[in-house]
Design a protein that fits this description.
By secondary structure, the protein is of the alpha+beta class. It has helices at residues 52-64, 90-115, 159-167, 234-253, 307-310, 313-324, 335-341; strands at 9-17, 25-33, 39-43, 71-75, 117-122, 125-130, 140-143, 146-149, 152-158, 179-187, 202-210, 217-227, 284-290. Strand 12 (217-227), helix 4 (234-253) and strand 13 form a beta-alpha-beta unit.
Length: 345
């Protein structure tokens, strides 16, 4: 019943959903320390533009104890290691576990190696030297690219020096196996485990104005609130929230497939006639990230992705109904449909 000073009707809509109660998938990855101390994540996949590869690098850096700048994603088509395909939000919950496990195993291999014996071939004769004499793997750690003794942090060597020494360099040294480990992870067991709680993780709000003379629906404000458990890459979460809401608004206001009623021929099978929102059509959108740590993925994270694009499509209809008191149930909600609902067309 609220009418604004410009004569437009005012309406608000709200919805929530329990998308991403759990995620399922299988992934595998390898982590290898190169001779120069840099770290490679090895698997077969691609980044679809949600900063996934950079996120995996951050996780490996934190787990292994090195700077993110020295971790690189080296995708290959024939390595036999496949992270879950980038087909949705669930791949993050699965793949982060895989790369984290591989990094943990690689770290353990490093500590076991440098705390034990280092085999060096000199003029064909094998000699043994200790890198950290008298210490066990549990007495060592890695931080900022340094392998050090926990009880005496000044007793340290760079991971780059150790990697070069272990793999060998120059005349008289043997090129050994690198510091490498791989791991795989399966998230969810496809009805073979106890059901998990379905939590309400998404809430979306929208404010609209409806012009009673033209039927135009103007989105004035939109808010995305998502509990992602843990935002490993907050900028990626915000990008998905923002981009998803733009997609939802575009679908609800303009995107429509039109067929010839006589022949069934699609009449707008191109982006000139199928109306998709551009940056100029973007309303104000606010993003809010909630981190409860109650997801079923690594770090307590859960998925996001598609929710922001599909669930809010109900919002314009609810906001329009709140504004004009009548439901417009046929989407997209075009001016003609609004005027018809108002009895003006």
């Amino acid at each position: 019943t609220k009418i604004l000073s410009n004569g437009n009707y005012h309406g608000m809509g709200f919805m929530y959903t329990h998308n991403w109660d759990d995620t399922r998938g299988t992934g595998a990855a390898g982590v290898m320390v190169e001779c120069d101390g840099s770290v490679s994540i090895i698997s077969c996949r691609m980044d679809i533009g949600v900063n996934a590869e950079s996120t995996y690098c951050d996780v490996v850096a934190e787990t292994l104890g090195v700077s993110p700048e020295v971790v690189h994603y080296r995708a290959s088509d024939d390595v036999g290691l496949f992270l879950m395909t980038p087909d949705g939000s669930c791949n993050m919950s699965t793949n982060v576990y895989a790369v984290q496990k591989a990094a943990l195993r690689c770290k353990q291999k490093i500590l076991e190696t440098v705390a034990g014996w280092d085999i060096v071939y000199n003029c064909g004769e094998q000699t043994r030297t200790t890198l950290f004499p008298g210490l066990k793997p549990g007495q060592l750690d890695i931080k900022d690219g340094w392998v050090f003794e926990k009880a005496n942090p000044d007793n340290k060597q760079t991971l780059a020096d150790l990697a070069l020494r272990y793999r060998g360099s120059g005349t008289g040294s043997l090129y050994c196996d690198p510091f490498f480990a791989w791991a795989w992870h399966r998230q969810g067991r496809f009805r073979l485990e106890a059901p998990r709680e379905r939590m309400m993780r998404q809430a979306h709000f929208m404010e609209v104005e409806v012009d009673p003379d033209t039927g135009e629906v103007i989105v004035k404000d939109a808010v995305c609130v998502n509990d992602v458990g843990k935002a490993v890459s907050p900028e990626s979460v915000e990008a998905q929230q923002y981009g998803g809401m733009i997609m939802a608004i575009s679908r609800d206001r303009a995107e429509e497939v039109i067929y010839d009623p006589l022949t069934g021929t699609k009449l707008n099978a191109d982006l000139l006639d199928y109306k998709v929102a551009t940056c100029l059509d973007a309303p104000a959108i606010k993003t809010r990230i909630i981190e409860t740590g109650m997801g079923y993925g690594c770090y307590g994270l859960c998925g996001l992705g598609e929710d922001c694009a599909d669930a809010p499509m109900t919002l314009i209809a609810a906001a329009v109904q709140n504004a004009i008191g009548v439901w417009v149930e046929d989407h997209p909600i075009t001016p003609n449909k609004v005027l018809k609902a108002l009895g003006k067309a």
